[in-house]
Design brief:
Elements: H1 2-18, H2 20-41, E1 49-54, E2 73-78, H3 81-89, E3 95-98, E4 104-106, H4 112-128, E5 133-134, H5 144-174, H6 177-182, H7 188-218, H8 226-247, H9 254-271, H10 283-289, H11 293-307, H12 311-335
Parallel strand pairs: 1-2, 1-3, 4-5
Antiparallel strand pairs: 3-4
Helix pairs in contact: 2-9, 5-7, 5-8, 5-9, 5-11, 7-8, 7-12, 8-11, 8-12, 11-12
Amino acid sequence: MLKRILAIFKARNLEFIRDRGTMAWNILLPIALMAGLSLAFGGDGRTQYTVGVVQQAEVIDRAEHPFLETQYIRFVTVDDVAVAMRKVARHQLDLLVDFEEGNEYWVNPSSPKGYFVELALLQTDSLVNGSLQKSEIDGDAIDYVDWVLPGILGMNMMFSCLFGVGYVVVRYRKNGFLKRLRATPVRPLEFIIAQVASRLMLTMTITAIIFIGTHWALGTRMDGSYLLLLLIGLLGAVSLVSMGLLVASRVTSEELAGGLLNMINWPMMLLSGVWFSLEGAGQLVQSAAKIFPLTHILDAARAVILDGAGLADVWVSLAVLVAMSAVFLGLGARFFRWDPA
């Protein structure tokens, strides 16, 4: 029995080693993720909070107030108080402070991170003169659960679309199902459209059930049009499914497919604003996040849910999703391979 176990053990190891693509991704994936995270969030110290500082100059004078020297806080300059106040209400900024004219600050009372930043601000201000005044935020301050719900739904949609299609198609190719299907009149584009439609129906049904359930049970916010939100979900799901099909268009190894899909999933989950806003990140990181469909899905969905945005407000995001879907579907059909070899 031991010999049989060792023989299977040896055969599986040789299979993995000889699959150079899979072995390379298992080595390169964590390295690439760490390099990307270091570029996006690295620096002299880990920033846990983002604070807006009202001033016209782009460079913050750290000597202006001891609070500006607090570690683990990223300070960003803002020149429009109304816009910055809205970002505080939407959990994009943890706190907003004005040391120059009003000598006041704004914080979302429902923000856990804002609570701790406010404590740090008041403690350092007491060392100077303790003259800072707390002001009310204009408009409604939303709860964090309202802000994060679109992110959770989008993340669930992302995993369902990418793995539900990409991984399955690779398995079809590996076990010879696609090779047999090739003998039929079905063309690659027809097969791809059928896969998109099937996964689209399943994903949208599950997402709708979760959204309606949480909205009913938790009383989450919904200020915009349900039809527009449905349109955003449909276009977003199509773009994600199309991306999964593009990844699976020529891959023959399930392990390699898993590595490639994770290579897409993790940066998209971290940079698309699922759990936290990228307001305090560098401009390069914010621009890089725009290459992911999930970023445009969440931007549009949050605008509709939290701000009651209309079609005229989110049409750019919708147009980008349509363009991405067309590119992914076209490339997927162009490079699609039936045979595993």
